Amino acid sequence: MNILQPWNVFFLVGFVVYSWIRHVFIERTRGEKKAVSRFDGLEKILLTAMVPPILLLPVLYLFTPLLAFADYRLPMFVPWIGAATMVASLWLFWRSHTDLGQNWSVSIELRENHELVTQGVYRYVRHPMYASIWLWGVAQGMLLQNWFAGWSVLPAFAAMYLLRTPREEQLMCELFGEEYREYMRRTGRLCPRIRIKRAD
């Protein structure tokens, strides 16, 4: 079984930490009342499509030989980069939840008394949680050296990101109006905006 390989164990520990972070914040926000919900058919499809690459394929790779035909080998330094990327991903994933606090939800929803969060990591980027999942996908490919278990999370998440982000931002504009539009102008979606100061 692949689970006995050190980098695969590292990935599994990271996955447990990832799941624990998500569980903690699901429990913290469970009692919060929803003012607006866009949990429609598309949202259900996007969330369901993430299950195989994040959970099912890694489990099959780690605990069965079913995906062995798609194994590959990377240079020895690559998993080290993957491990560092995963640590960065987990930190950003945790910090994103922490900064959002009670304003966070799994799907596209707004809570009663929802606040626009622009501090912490949200001071620099609008979607740091999505940035953390992009990092996770890259780390997964570097640690799980299998074409299906390693890299399938990236195209699946790309579909979610491209379809979901505009809907989220539209909802935020509807609620916060010009305040959110101004926030969009001064921040990037995934990376901080680089502002070049002009010489006088």
Keywords:
200 residues; mainly alpha; Four Helix Bundle (Hemerythrin (Met), subunit A); two-stranded antiparallel ribbon
Please give the CATH class.
Answer: Mainly Alpha
Question: What's the main sheet like?
Answer: 2 strands, antiparallel
Tally the helices.
Answer: 8
Strand order of the largest sheet: 1-2
Helix content: 55-70%
- Going by helix content, strand content and strand pairing, the class is mainly alpha
Q: What percent strand?
A: under 5%
The domain count comes to 1
**Shape, principal axes of CA atoms:** globular
As for the CATH topology, it is: Four Helix Bundle (Hemerythrin (Met), subunit A)
Reported CATH architecture: Up-down Bundle
- Based on CA atoms alone, the radius of gyration comes out at 18 Å
* Uncertain spans: none
The averaged pLDDT comes out at 93
How are the secondary structure elements laid out?
Elements: H1 6-28, E1 34-37, H2 41-49, H3 51-63, H4 77-100, E2 109-111, H5 128-143, H6 147-151, H7 153-176, H8 178-186
Antiparallel strand pairs: 1-2
Helix pairs in contact: 1-4, 2-7, 4-5, 5-7, 7-8
